[in-house]
Amino acid sequence: MNELLKNLVKLQELELEESKDAKKKALIEELRGTIQPPILGHYDRLMARGKKGIVAVRNRVCSACHI
Which residue among 1, 6, 9, 27 is the one 20 to 30 A from 44 at the CA level? Predict the structure, then answer.
């Protein structure tokens, strides 16, 4: 998996966790700084709608919406 995908997965894990202490918030900001703004914009738009920002695709099918 390339570095961008790893960062997006880690970012999503941290943002979906219930508790966010100062260390986690700092890590979230650091990860956000490594992701290109257009990609981060798409991610944030999906997250704001209550959907996951990144999910696995298996056999060309999205594992979240099944399209």
Answer: 1
